Each structure stands twice: as C-alpha cells, then as structure tokens.
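Appendix B: complex inputs.
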Amino acid sequence: EPEVTQTPSHQVTQMGQEVILRCVPISNHLYFYWYRQILGQKVEFLVSFYNNEISEKSEIFDDQFSVERPDGSNFTLKIRSTKLEDSAMYFCASSSGLASLYEQYFGPGTRLTVT
Amino acid sequence: RKEVEQDPGPFNVPEGATVAFNCTYSNSASQSFFWYRQDCRKEPKLLMSVYSSGNEDGRFTAQLNRASQYISLLIRDSKLSDSATYLCVVTNQAGTALIFGKGTTLSVSS
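Resulting structure:
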C-alpha cells in the first residue's frame, strides 16, 4: 500500500538554527499539507500546497516557515530560525484531491526538538 | 469558542462496552466531517467520514447534525485494540485544510 514517508524521524536543533523537514507524498497525489502537534495538544494545520503554490496557510505559518517541492517527489518544510516553541511533531500529508472530498494520508511524523 | 470541541475524556471502559463520543464545531460553513484515530505518538489515521444521513462501518456508527453543528461516534462491543485517541475533524470553509479537535482518549480494559 502506498504511504507517505518523512525524514528524519527525530531532529534535534539549537534555537536560531534552520531546519528542513522532508516528506515524500504518495506518488499520484496532487495536494500536500503540513500539520504540527505540540506534545499533549491538538493537531494544527500549517499549510496546504497545490500546483506548486501555497493554497492555504494558517496564522502559525509566518515568514519563518516556507515550503517547497524541489523535484517531482519531495515536499519540504523549512523553518528559518527555530524557536523553543517550534518543538513539536510535524506531520506531512497528501491527498489526490481537495480535503473536503478526498482522504488525507499522513506520514509518521518528524519529532522536532529545539534546545 | 474553539473551532472543534470534544468530550475531554478519558473514557475507561471494559471490553464489550458501548461508548459514545460527542463533538461540536463552530464554523457552519465546514463542508466535510471525519473521525480520525490516533495511537500514542503516531500519525492520525482516518476512521470514517461522517454524513448527515448517518453512516455505519462495522461496530462504528457516526452521525452528523448540521443544524446543531454536532457530530457523534458510537463504538459498540469495544475491543482492547480500540484503545486510542479519537479525533473529531472538520474541513475549513474552502475545503483545503483539516481542523482537528483535541481528541478524546479511550482505554478499553479486559
């Protein structure tokens, strides 16, 4: 069964450093998403991406965050200057159509720890 | 008002019990509704979509009341393997993002 993969599974970084989280969505999917979940909190939407551009972003997704699909398979989330409060599990997801109509498949997540 | 609110839980039930979870959402323009399941430190996985007519998948029954902006999930004959956190999820108005509730934890014991 096709699945979304994410690397690394755990990333530890120092405050102020840049991090790039990587995702390989399911190959025939067209919509890509990033969500985050702070420990003990709810899953929060960050950004959705379609046709090589951002289609929606939340208030959390400020100018410290960026997304890119550098080639035909990877989808990345970059945090330019990490803060302690960026520590969370980051989930990538993909779907073959709009979230309202098509199931989103989530990757296993990258646990980001900012020290 | 929070976008998606759920019973705080936890629910601790014996095997074979029937358990019901409730959820309310604030945006009347939400288009689609789901229950996801999340195991500890794992990714959310779709359990079932929720329709106004109500829908059933084996031991699981979901119901949506758009007028009350209320969603429910009923689990019959609980199994040990049902122990997880159940997330009530709605889409935003544009249908481009999922909005999650905080989840309700279910623990089924033998």
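Chain B touches chain A through 22 residues (CB under 8 Å).
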